[in-house]
Design brief:
- By secondary structure, the chain is mainly α.
- It has a domain at about 55-140.
- The protein is about 50% helix and about 5% strand.
- It is elongated, with a radius of gyration of 25 Å.
């Protein structure tokens, strides 16, 4: 009777080098690693977004801590997605298109704008409309 060798030993016997995973990897085995990778990508994208939008609050100039900077959609009806919603990540091109609909504000200014205490300066609203029109025109053309 012929002795049966495991595939890895048989291939080594024939002189082949193979790389196989001992077991099939499961999400549960890699959960923590994947959570860290997504968090790292989201931090990187937020840094890129902040840099793209000028690096400081467009209302008061605050720039000390990235975690205190928010993106405010000028027109909520034009919002396709929230930049940091539910851990989803998108391509930089899609994120940049969404960023063009936003202004960068600190957490305090953002809360005041949302509550109606602070109004966006007319220059920002007008400039944003122009940028949006240019962006929409360039996508069509």
């Amino acid at each position: 009777m012929v002795e049966q060798l495991p595939v890895a030993q048989f291939c080594c016997f024939l002189g082949y080098i193979i790389t196989t995973m001992a077991d099939k990897r499961k999400y549960a085995d890699r959960r923590e690693e994947l959570i860290r990778a997504v968090a790292k990508r989201r931090r990187k994208l937020k840094s890129m977004a902040i840099e793209y939008k000028g690096g400081k609050c467009q209302l008061c100039g605050y720039s000390k801590y990235q975690g205190a900077l928010d993106l405010h959609h000028i027109n909520p009806k034009e919002k396709d997605f929230g930049i940091g919603d539910k851990g989803y990540t998108r391509s930089w091109d899609k994120i940049r298109a969404e960023l063009d609909k936003c202004i960068l504000v600190c957490a305090t200014c953002h809360r005041e704008v949302e509550a109606g205490i602070t109004q966006l300066p007319e220059g920002i609203r007008e400039r944003k409309r122009g940028e949006l029109l240019e962006a929409q025109t360039s996508r069509r053309g």
